[in-house]
Amino acid sequence: MFSNFISEEVRIIVFGTIKSGKSSTANNILGSKPFETGLSGNGKTKKANRVALTSNNKIVVVDTPGFFDFQDAIHTGIMKEELSDAINLVYPGPHAIILVISVIGFSKTELDLIKWITDEKKDMLKYIYAVFTGRDILEKENKSFEKFKEKLPEPLRKFLHDLKDRVFVLITQKRPTS
Ligand SMILES: Nc1nc2c(ncn2[C@@H]2O[C@H](COP(=O)(O)OP(=O)(O)OP(=O)(O)O)[C@@H](O)[C@H]2O)c(=O)[nH]1
Ligand SMILES: [Mg+2]
């Protein structure tokens, strides 16, 4: 398995807006399902959670609660609290911070978040990877990711362009209805 080829621990934080598919992405990376996923309720994931791949503990993934409204998350301090909780769980620091975005749930929250990262959290940028969940939904509509990207707001397209090859479009878990 992949984990047999890495000699050092790899520490990954998964974050993003509510219901974007963070826990599904985290499970996907680990190849098991330690994190609860689903559409019901106000946010399945309540606190930053750390799970290490059990075979040899070489992949550590921290799943985080989603935030619904970026301005609210900043003003109430939730954003800072969530991020510092997650960072504390990956001492001495993360190798990757995965920003999860759903192809169906894209909103102003993501735009605000990206602006915050690029303006105020530049030190985070070198760790950021973007994962779009819901590739199956694009496939169902016969839409390529390139076509999907054309419709995205300019700041997000620029952000993705600057990430270069650190952008992935995945099927992390199908919605129960599909
Ligand atoms: N069709 C489809 N559905 C997905 C995909 N990834 C996740 N989902 C669905 O999206 C819903 C939310 O997934 P979660 O992984 O729980 O999302 P989350 O961001 O962790 O949610 P919270 O912790 O509640 O913020 C679930 O019903 C998943 O089945 C995908 O690639 N395709
Ligand atoms: Mg979750």
From TrEMBL:
Residues 7-178 form the AIG1-type G domain. Keywords: GTP-binding, Nucleotide-binding. GO terms for molecular function: GTP binding. The keyword DNA repair does not apply. The keyword Nucleotide-binding applies. SUPFAM superfamilies: P-loop containing nucleoside triphosphate hydrolases. Pfam families: AIG1. PANTHER family: GTP-BINDING PROTEIN A (PTHR10903:SF184), GTPASE, IMAP FAMILY MEMBER-RELATED (PTHR10903). Belongs to the TRAFAC class TrmE-Era-EngA-EngB-Septin-like GTPase superfamily. AIG1/Toc34/Toc159-like paraseptin GTPase family. IAN subfamily. This is AIG1-type G domain-containing protein. It comes from Mytilus edulis. The lineage of its organism: Eukaryota, Metazoa, Spiralia, Lophotrochozoa, Mollusca.
